[in-house]
Amino acid sequence: MSTAGRPEEQGDQKYNIDWGFGHGSTVNGIVRYAEAMLSFLFLSVSMFSCALDKQAIRQSDREEDMLQNVAQQYWDGIRWGHTDRAALFVKDEKTRALYQGQLSFEGSTLRYVDAKVLHAEVSAEKREKDAEWLREGTVLVHIEVYGVNSVLEVSNIEQEWQRDLEGWWLKINIEPE
C-alpha cells in the first residue's frame, strides 16, 4: 500500500502557508506581510499628518490676512477722523465709549497723514474651553502724523489684538479719569 499523500510523509508542508511573498516560507512570508502593512500604515499616517499641518498653516494664514484687514479698517477710521468707526473695534461698550472720547480729543490735536498695516502675526489657537480669547495677534503699523507743533512724526508701532468667535478686537486698557 502506498503511503504517498499522507500527512506524515509530506513533512512540514501541511503547515507551510504561502502568503505570496516568497518560496513558501511561513515565517518570511508573515514578516514581509507585517513589514508591508506597517509601511503602508506609516505612509498613511504621515500623509494624514501632513494634510493636517497644511490645513493648520492655511488657517493661520487666513487669520493673519483677516487680522491685517481688520486692523487696516481700524487705522483707516483713525486716518480719516471717523472715531466712531475706529471705536467699533473695541469689544467692551464702556471701554469703547471712553476710547471714542479719547480718539475725538486726539483728533483735535493730531492729524494723521498715513497709517498702513505692514504686518500681522497671530498666535496658535487656544484649546482651553473656558479661554476668553481664541487667539491673540500683533500688527505692525507705519504711522505718519502731524502733531501739535505741526512737525511730521513718522513711526512704526506694534498693536495687540484678540480674537473671539465674533472677530478680532483691539486690546486696550483705558481707566476712567
Give the beta-strand count.
4
Series of H and E elements: HHHHEEEE
Strand order of the largest sheet: 1-2-3-4
Choose one word for the global shape: elongated
Strand content: 15-25%
Describe the model.
This protein is α+β, with helices and mostly antiparallel strands and 177 residues long. Helix content is 45%, strand content 23%. The protein is built from 4 helices and 4 strands, in the order ααααββββ. Strands 1-2-3-4 form a 4-stranded antiparallel sheet. A hairpin with a 5-residue loop joins strand 2 (135-146) and strand 3. The longest helix is centred in the N-terminal third of the chain and has 54 residues, at 26-79.
What is the topology?
Elements: H1 7-10, H2 26-79, H3 83-87, H4 93-109, E1 111-122, E2 135-146, E3 152-164, E4 167-170
Antiparallel strand pairs: 1-2, 2-3, 3-4
Can you describe this structure in just a few lines?
The protein has 177 residues and is of the alpha+beta class. Helix content is 45%, strand content 23%. A hairpin with a 5-residue loop joins β2 and β3.
Descriptors:
single chain, 177 residues, alpha+beta, 4-stranded antiparallel beta sheet, 4 strands, 45% helix, 23% strand, elongated
